[in-house]
Amino acid sequence: MDKPVLPHPVQLHEVVLEKINCRRIGNFSPKASYRMNFAVRTKSISKTEAYGYLCLKVFFDGQPNVFSMEIIVRGKFIDENATNRSMLKRFAERQSLPLLLPWAREAVSSLTRRMGYPPLLIPLIDVSATLRTKEV
């Protein structure tokens, strides 16, 4: 059975890679283990617009230290019918990680390949558990 698509009142209108900082440090090793940190922040532009920012850092704790990378993805959330600035900002705080993560995943994969390494695929994450267990 076909069902109509019902758009959410808040829409993601533009996504940009605001910052890319990566540095090749050593040669690739399949034994190298990396960690990732996520951070989310928001900025209210008006009662109908807010920016959501996803910062992703990839780094190696021990040897071999292969590369370092920091990426910031910015998305513009718009709710034409919003009446409360803080509600839109809270929406952006909750939704920036799941909605902007695909752009960060693509950037990490593409950049690692261009650095001469196999593409690094950021694993899918349990967004709800991540937001509950750590400061994002």
UniProtKB/TrEMBL annotation:
Q: Name one GO molecular function term.
A: unfolded protein binding
Name any Gene Ontology BP term: protein tetramerization
Q: Which domain of life is it from?
A: Bacteria
The UniProt entry's sequence similarity note says:
Belongs to the SecB family.
According to UniProt, the name of this protein is Preprotein translocase subunit SecB
Gene3D superfamilies linked: SecB-like
What species is this protein from? Pelotomaculum schinkii
The protein's matches in InterPro entries, at most eight in alphabetical order, are given as:
SecB, SecB-like_sf
